[in-house]
Specification:
The complex is a heterodimer of chains A (860) and B (241). With 860 residues, chain A is an alpha/beta fold. Chain A contains 28 helices and 33 strands. Chain A is 28% helix and 17% strand. In chain A, the strands form ten sheets. Chain A has a seven-stranded mixed β-sheet with strand order 5-4-19-18-17-6-7, with helices on one face. Chain A has a six-stranded mixed beta barrel with strand order 24-28-25-27-26-33. A four-stranded parallel β-sheet of chain A has the order 11-10-9-15. In chain A, strand 9, helix 8 and strand 10 form a beta-alpha-beta unit. In chain A, helix 7 (203-213) crosses helix 15 and helix 13 (348-355) packs across helix 14. Chain A is globular. Chain B has helices at 18-26, 65-69, 95-99, 130-137, 169-172, 179-183, 200-207; strands at residues 4-9, 37-45, 48-56, 75-77, 83-85, 106-107, 162-163, 189-193, 210-211, 223-226. Chain B contains seven helices and ten strands. Chain B is globular. Classes of the chains: A alpha/beta (860), B alpha+beta (241).
């Protein structure tokens, strides 16, 4: 079929232009190329290509320099192609055994971030004293000295009034240099309020693995050796974690593995899997428990790991209890209890009614999964667990790995391999009385209170409750916050129910934002400090794992910072320490001066030296042959920097069988570990576990609370008033929340299945769209109990009827000219967090993003 | 002589679009133009659906209608099977675009890289204008401009001419693979010499059934597709009456 000829007035355009085809053809005769400026446009280069005889002499002249990408938390090791100090392109670092040369799509967008014209190029201060979403701060540029002087004065004011606990540090995108600013600086100033972003990330994902196998961590999945991959909301071809690696091996992995995706929305990974189970949001645990039930009734549990009935006869029969003494467990604990108290009635028929997946399908998956034991992965993603009550879903989904012996096993679920980085020098010697007193106050996020157990690694209040810090600030509970610094965070965009943060941030009298771009958080700041870009301009390191390895990968400054910028976690704290020392408080500076260069023993004298020495110190056991412990060996620092990454030893399969960091030492179906944590939290509050559960909004009482069990999803809004369940998800182009200002993001946004280029669409099933009279392309408003957003509609079959799916990442009303429709005023698209209510899985402290938001849709 | 061609393995491809961005990066493509692109479709009715993705690019046809139709020979075939474009000879008539059944030739309707020539800063003196940024970093129209692309094709094609994929001829001359092939994280693109019976592309084409886009048009495309993007299974059944 012939391509349609497009009607235009092209000819008139061409001839009217100051730079016409004729001009070009005339100039094209010039040999050797050169810069030709069109009269109206700067340096529009009409370079014709070079005469071939000269071309032969022009060989690639750049260098591939190592660094790390933090576009998501895959934290791939990368290389940047640099010519004459300019970053040109991005690829995977072939020296990494985790990702090799593979690079996911989002990494390239980093170029448009580091070279973003809307990056803040100098410190700025607000001149409009009023703070609010619609209030233009009227920023004016100031010098670094003025900015840091002002901040130092504010901190000293707190010190002089013994109010250091009213200082707060908010941490966003970090590297493992983080403790310098997040921990040491906060403590030495004298505040307990270092608030990380972790619970708006995926803490509930870690809850299941911790309370079963004793590891509060993200996992790596051995998919090349797996025969069954059952993914719970995980979309590894688009979103966390180790996307580059999984993308590189997926085609091979599905040769031998059956891949099943459980997700209300048809994801990119679902398109490349054998089966899509479009579960009703919030009902994943029903499905997981029915699968567990079936594995047991069919006798498919992995006997060398779990054990067996003493006489070998399977007594797991639906509805019937089993005598404890009839079963002998090997490396697990509490299987019979789990069956008797929870699983025995959780048949596929029961789960079908809850989950919306047919009973025979559930049975088919359970049997397929069980038969693939032990090479059968149950992959816990963020969607099913970052929900109110999601911690128990995390346990249920992860426990399947225990049933089939996939834990720590070939083709199974693995933790991170051992690595040998070390922490920064201690701070004890640098705490004065003011600091000791100040940091002893309780934290602004209320972790550890009765209603926020946040049981990270078994400890009451062990984890942050990021989103609740807004309440603490608003209610001045336990105290007001007077001086706050946020770095590379954007909580009033990235945390649920954003309007609370608008109010909270407006309340803080002095707020500093360390950021690359003037974002929504910056809009409330008194001072902005422009920071370096983590992938191109910063010294640091992060650790990640995949492919059976852990890598420690360096963030390196491959180019000079584009402007007069300093690094968030190292250089800025140093410069602030210098200012504080000028004012008579030199504890922080003296502490930082103790970070000696391991090679020379020198103490740092500048911010840049400090950043480098700190990095060399933390990574010393990786690059210094004198203190080598394992993994890759280097001749010294220089070789390490040139390589950019250290790889661990290969994975020690099954080393942890019978030797897990749980109370029993075994893989716990009945979690003695969770029991201990809950009892300890209850005791701290002079109450009992049932009261803790009731206060925290869980349905379980008694023994069930220590088992993976079914909890009904908690939902905001009734079906009649808000007919659709909102399904948030993450775009494969998201660099966390920071890539919407790139043109490549907007141009290619339809790389997410069912989405549109230059669009921010909410996807509806045609059945629902018809009900509400909505067509593709309609401008619509999504309204929840707590907020509303405007976007466009897209009808798509990949959406479960009764739900509406929309990717997070757009809806910026600040950040830049592409991300926002009108900078500082109107958003481009809609921010999901505007409509998601602030709720929590309180046992983990995690913010809920999924399954609890009901919306209604209206045309606008 | 060589006959360059490509095999795309749809089983390895995950539809990530890395090839699309990488090509734009390597070849200094303006906003709105992609030489590496895709055809996607969602078929079926919930829940029995499939989303498929086919990466597309110039097929460097042996019997290229863009070449035979070009009035100035700006579009021509090289000895090693690349369909090349010479910006100097192009008069922007777009006859090649009308002739090409694949829609892989793009036209520069505007001065390219419009957004990089804006002169306003969002926050006066606090941020910068695109033009100033390009100057600050020593770029050329764009800040991440790749000068190595200029050896075989114009680095910035001006308004009024077409442009298209040239198999990264500037890389081939240095024994480097086309950038889309190099950047694909899934190793889904395989490049090589179709005239060499032992090349990897021919090994794959020998073992696997392949398809090409719009073969019936007689263009003899040299981009081949093997295997399937979607994998699925179904329980064995004899159906029913």
């Amino acid at each position: 079929m012939k391509k349609q000829v497009i009607e235009t007035d092209l000819d008139s355009n061409v001839h009217d232009s100051a730079f016409t085809r004729r001009t070009f053809l005339k100039l094209a005769g010039m040999a050797g190329g050169g810069m030709i400026a069109a009269s109206n446009s700067p340096k529009l280069n009409a370079l014709d290509f070079i005469d071939s005889s000269i071309a032969d002499q022009l060989k690639p002249s750049g260098q591939w320099l190592p660094t790390t990408c933090q576009g998501c938390t895959s934290w791939c090791s990368k290389q940047i192609y640099v010519i004459d100090g300019r970053a040109i392109k991005v690829r995977g670092n072939p020296n990494s055994k985790v990702n090799g040369s593979a690079s996911c799509v989002r990494a390239h967008l980093g170029l448009q971030q580091v070279y973003d014209p809307d990056r803040v190029k100098t410190p700025m201060k607000r001149t409009n004293p009023k703070k609010g979403k619609g209030e233009d701060p009227q920023f004016v540029p100031i010098s670094w000295d003025e900015a840091l002087d002002t901040i130092a004065d504010k901190i000293m004011e707190l010190r002089d009034n013994n109010e250091t606990h009213k200082y707060m540090l908010m941490r966003g995108r970090y590297s493992y240099m983080r403790d310098i600013i997040y921990d040491r600086m906060t403590k030495i100033i004298g505040s307990p309020n270092n608030i990380s972003h972790s619970s708006i990330c995926a803490e509930a994902e870690k809850f299941g693995p911790y309370y079963t196998e004793g590891e509060w961590t993200y996992r790596q999945y051995d998919i090349l050796n797996a025969n069954y991959i059952l993914m719970w909301g995980a979309d590894p071809l688009s979103a966390n974690r180790q996307i580059s690696y999984y993308t590189s091996v997926w085609g091979e992995s599905i040769e031998t593995a059956t891949a099943v995706v459980v997700d209300p929305r048809y994801s990119a990974t679902a398109a490349k899997s054998n089966l899509w189970l479009p579960v009703k949001p919030g009902e994943d645990s029903a499905l997981a428990l029915a699968i567990a039930h079936t594995i047991l009734t069919e006798g498919l549990w992995y006997k060398p790991f779990v054990g067996d009935f003493i006489d070998g006869e399977n007594r797991f029969v639906a509805g019937k209890s089993v005598t404890h003494t009839s079963f002998k467990e090997i490396h697990t604990h509490g299987l019979v209890k789990w069956w008797n108290l929870e699983l025995k009635d959780k048949t596929p028929e029961w789960a079908a009614e809850k989950s919306g997946i047919a009973a025979d399908k559930i049975r088919e998956v359970a049997i397929g999964y069980g038969k693939a034991a032990p090479h059968a992965i149950s992959w816990v993603g963020g969607g099913p667990v970052m929900q109110p009550r999601g911690g128990y879903t995390s346990m249920a989904c992860h426990a399947l790995n225990g049933l089939v012996g996939a834990v720590d096993n070939v083709g199974g679920t693995l933790k991170a391999n051992k690595e040998y980085t070390q922490s920064f020098p201690g701070y004890d010697d640098f705490l004065d009385d003011i600091a000791t007193e100040g940091k002893g106050h309780s934290k602004i996020d209320h972790r550890g209170r009765l209603e926020f157990p946040a049981l990270n690694s078994g400890k009451s209040g062990g984890g942050v409750v990021t989103n609740n810090a807004a309440e603490g600030i608003l209610n001045e509970d336990p105290n007001e916050i007077k001086v706050a610094i946020g770095y590379m965070n954007n909580f009033n965009f990235s945390a649920p129910q954003t309007e609370r943060w608008h109010r909270a941030l407006a309340k803080i009298p002095f707020l500093v934002h360390i950021t690359t771009n003037a974002s929504e958080f910056s809009w409330f700041a008194d001072i902005i400090l422009p920071s370096t870009h983590h992938m191109f301009e910063k010294y640091g390191y992060v650790k990640s794992h995949g492919n059976g390895y852990r890598h420690v990968t360096l963030l390196l400054p491959v180019i000079e910072p584009v402007w007069d910028l300093y690094t968030d976690e190292t250089e800025i704290p140093w410069k602030l320490a210098e200012k504080l020392a000028e004012r008579g408080f030199d504890n922080l500076l003296r502490h930082y001066q103790s970070y000696l260069d391991p090679e020379t023993g020198k103490s740092p004298t500048t911010a840049q030296e400090f950043a480098l020495y700190a990095l060399k110190h933390a990574t010393q056991k990786l690059w210094d042959p004198a203190v080598y412990e394992g993994g890759d060996k280097f001749s010294g620092w220089d070789e390490f920097v040139a390589t950019g990454v250290w790889n661990s030893d290969p994975y020690p399969y099954r080393k942890r069988w019978g030797n897990m960091k749980t109370v029993s030492g075994m893989f716990e179906f009945y979690s003695e570990t969770l029991k201990k944590a809950l009892e300890s939290h209850a005791e701290k509050h002079e109450t009992d576990v049932d009261n803790v559960l009731e206060t925290c909004g869980y349905q379980a009482r008694g023994e069930i609370a220590f088992l993976p069990h079914y909890e009904e999803p908690k939902v905001w809004g009734t079906k009649t008033e808000y007919p659709l369940l909102f399904v948030d998800y993450k775009s494969r182009l998201n660099r966390e929340g920071r890539s919407a200002n790139t043109t490549w993001y907007q141009e290619l946004r339809d790389l997410d299945p069912g989405c549109e280029a230059y669009g921010d669409v909410a996807q509806l099933n045609p059945i629902d769209a018809k009900k509400f009279g909505i067509k593709s392309g309609d401008k619509i408003k999504l309204i929840s109990q707590v907020g509303e957003l405007i976007c466009h509609a897209k009808l798509w079959e990949g959406v479960r009827p009764g739900t509406i799916a929309k990717a997070y990442g757009q809806g910026h009303w600040a950040y830049g000219r592409v991300a926002a429709d009108e900078f500082g005023k109107t958003p481009r698209g809609g921010n999901n967090n505007d409509i998601i209510p602030a709720d929590y899985d309180r046992l983990s402290g995690a913010s809920a993003f999924y399954a609890h938001t009901r919306v209604k849709v209206v045309k606008v | 002589m060589k006959q360059y061609g490509m095999v795309i393995d749809l089983q390895r491809c995950t539809g990530c679009g890395g090839c699309i961005v990488a090509c734009k990066n390597e070849n200094n493509l303006p906003e709105g133009i992609s030489w590496s692109s895709k055809i996607t479709e969602t078929k079926g009715t919930f829940p029995n659906i499939r989303y498929s993705y086919i990466p597309t690019l110039c097929n460097h046809c042996e019997n290229a209608p863009c070449v035979s139709g070009c009035p100035t020979n700006a579009m021509y075939s090289t000895e090693d099977g690349i369909v090349m474009h010479d910006t100097r000879k192009c008069i922007g008539c777009r006859f090649c675009m009308a002739r090409c059944p694949y829609g892989v030739i793009s036209f520069n309707w505007e001065d390219p890289h419009k957004s990089w020539r804006e002169e306003t800063a969002l926050i006066p003196a606090g941020t910068t204008s695109p033009v100033e940024l390009v100057q600050q970093v020593g770029g050329n129209v764009t800040p991440y401009y790749n000068p190595e692309q200029e050896t075989k094709y114009a680095g910035i094609r001006p308004r009024g001419v077409v442009e298209k994929c040239n198999f990264c001829a500037h890389r081939l001359e240095n024994d480097q693979l086309p950038y889309c092939v190099d950047s694909c994280p899934a190793n889904a693109r395989v490049f090589g010499n179709l005239a060499d019976k032992d090349s990897e592309v021919n090994q794959i084409l020998g073992k696997f059934k392949s398809t090409r886009l719009k073969e019936e048009q007689g263009t003899k495309p040299k981009v081949f597709y093997v295997r399937e993007f979607n994998r699925s299974t179904y329980k064995k059944t004899k159906g029913g009456v």
